[in-house]
UniProtKB/TrEMBL annotation:
One of its GO terms (biological process) is DNA-templated transcription. Transmembrane segments: none annotated. It holds the Pfam family HTH_1. PROSITE patterns: HTH_LYSR. It comes from Acidovorax kalamii. Residues 4-61 form the HTH lysR-type domain. Belongs to the LysR transcriptional regulatory family. This is LysR family transcriptional regulator. Keywords: DNA-binding, Transcription, Transcription regulation.
Length: 297
């Protein structure tokens, strides 16, 4: 079996994924000229063109599309095997998500998972930035939005149905909140005022000025303020399941507002070749299902 030069395969795979010599060079920390040279070296080795060089960029030929799929899977296998050997018996799983999602949903559930998977280490990278999974050596990311996510496999994890919650102290002596308790000054906003505006419209609360209330940079600040009895936070129910169960927070007895937004687990298609990564994926998707987050989408 005659194998191609591995460095040329690596350079081709990055160029094919980005459809850009310049972006591939940036990822690989080399010059664009070096990338072009290695791609042409591979094409000479194979005896066929992998790209059509167009005035506005690159397009994969049919042969290039087939070869990209094979190279991506092969490089992933090599990477996973290398990581296992380098890490010894323990396998590292890297997942990226926002700080709020990490603190409110993922991390509280991880301890139970790790008790049953002692051979795994889960490293959580909390950031608001959409990471490049391959370039930044990240196995999974949880993304919030409508999608799609080109080049990645995306699985629905949680719905984003929003419910108002507050401290029981705010509505005492009643053990629950009701629509009459909602007022403009009591609104705790997450980033913008749009969520509360849409929720009030859906509930027919024309009397409530959704332009009032305090705005926080993230959902975590709004939840902390709600726990302190400062007002109502509008949150995804699964993110405050513990607080609702212990009655540190109480929810409003009103229909949740359905939205097309949701949380999705995204990863490169070849990631699940690795049994450790598949085990984490199976667990986190199951956790989403148990939280009531799986929908027909």
């Amino acid at each position: 079996m005659k194998l191609p030069p591995l460095i040329a395969v690596r350079f081709f795979e990055a160029t094919a994924r980005h459809r850009s010599v310049r972006e591939a060079a940036r990822e690989l920390h080399v010059t664009p000229g070096a990338v072009s040279q290695q791609v042409r070296r591979l094409e000479d080795f194979l005896g066929c063109a992998l790209f059509d060089r167009l005035p506005r960029g690159l397009a994969l030929t049919p042969a290039g599309m087939d070869y990209q799929a094979a190279c991506g899977e092969a490089l992933a296998r090599i990477g996973h095997a290398t990581a296992r050997l380098a890490a010894g018996a323990r396998r590292v799983v890297r997942v990226s998500c926002t700080p709020d999602f990490a603190a409110q949903w993922l991390v509280p559930r991880l301890q139970h998972f790790l008790q049953h998977a002692p051979e795994l280490d889960v490293h959580v990278n909390s950031t608001h930035r959409a990471v490049d999974l391959l370039a930044e050596d990240m196995h999974f990311a949880v993304r919030h939005g409508l999608g799609p996510y080109p080049g990645l496999h995306a699985e629905w994890l949680l719905d984003d149905d929003l419910v108002p919650v507050c401290s029981p102290r705010l509505v005492a002596p009643r053990p629950w909140a009701q629509l009459a308790d909602i007022t403009g000054p009591r609104l705790l906003h997450d980033g913008t005022r749009d969520d509360w505006r849409l929720w009030c419209q859906a509930q027919g609360l024309a009397r409530v000025d959704s332009g009032q209330g305090v705005v926080f940079a993230g959902a975590g600040g709004a939840v902390e303020a709600a726990l302190a009895g400062q007002g109502f936070a509008l949150v995804q129910r699964a993110s405050v399941a513990r607080e609702l169960a212990t009655q540190a927070l109480v929810g409003l007895q009103a229909p949740a507002v359905k939205t097309p937004l949701g949380y999705r687990l995204v990863y490169r298609p070849e990631a699940l070749i690795d049994p450790a990564l598949r085990r984490f994926r199976d667990w986190v998707v199951d956790e989403g299902a148990q939280a009531g987050g799986i929908s027909a989408g």
